[in-house]
Amino acid sequence: MVRLWPDAVELGYQALGRLTEIVHSVGKTPLFISGPGRSREICESFADHPFIVSESTSRAVKKVIAAARSHDSIVAIGGGKAIDVGKMSAELTGLPMVSVPTVLSGDGIASPIAVIDGVSHKVSVPSALVCDLEVISGAPRRHNAAGAGDLLSNISSVWDWKRAHELGKDQDFNGLAAAMSETGALALLSEEPDLRCADTLRALCQGLLLSGVAMAIAGSSKPSSGSEHKISHAMDKLLGGAGLHGEQVALAAVFTTYLQSNSHREPMVSFMRKLGLPTKPDDLGLSFGDFARCVSEAPSTRPDRFTILEEAAPSGQPLLGLIGEAFGSRGLAGQGV
Fold first, then answer.
1. pTM for this predicted structure
2. Burial of 94 (0-12, 13-18, 19+ CB in 10 A)
3. Is the alpha carbon torsion for 113, 246, 142, 8 positive or negative?
């Protein structure tokens, strides 16, 4: 049976206090892996010699698999790289895996996807998630903000998915998955745009968890990846990346929700701005021309996925004009720009 969500979730302050109990519920001889920084210090309080992961590559996965031969489970403590390597290693060995994020930079904390060597792979959802908000609150603010950007961009991707279904372009639409993805994003918007606030951090973690579960239910990333992610992929391809993943999809969502006439756009953009996320291309050092190139390239990054870009994005000078509208005083009216 395919797991659609973690069997155990511990989320809150002092959540690490239950880690040993939860780990022992999935395996008696766990292999602990972590990142090289602060996550290593946390990991060493539970294991004498954790396996250190500094890159999300197939080479790292092979090393973890070799180290896991005498173990019956994998515990990954750290950021996206450690957790992705942990998920991929668990998938290939058939071992249960416990995800312990030390930063909330994206929805990979409990998603059925692991990015290895820059390529997304389908994997099993972690057996358990332990998210200590005290640890998260000490993570770099920019990275937690990027996670908020990743979550809020679901507002764009869910709209795309619904629209594709309405037009007969997608027969795999799942209303429950769409609702879970959008609900997590909108719940974050109902909190204070302050990542020092406990309720906001809790809503961010819960929303990222819901995003991952939505993808597992859908059997694809469609609930959390639409036109805005296509533009981000194009940024990676053409520009070598302009910022953190969550920053890129947040910026792209400002544009795509404008194309969509999305009713949630105004509160989304306002929330993003208050978190310090990019809401205009020059916030990431991009010109309108740079952004236009990425929009033009975006459809080719996922040609199998119909979005607002295929329906409404023009090319050439009309596209530049539309970008000017979306990011200009008219397009950001009411956002304090």
1. 0.94
2. exposed
3. negative
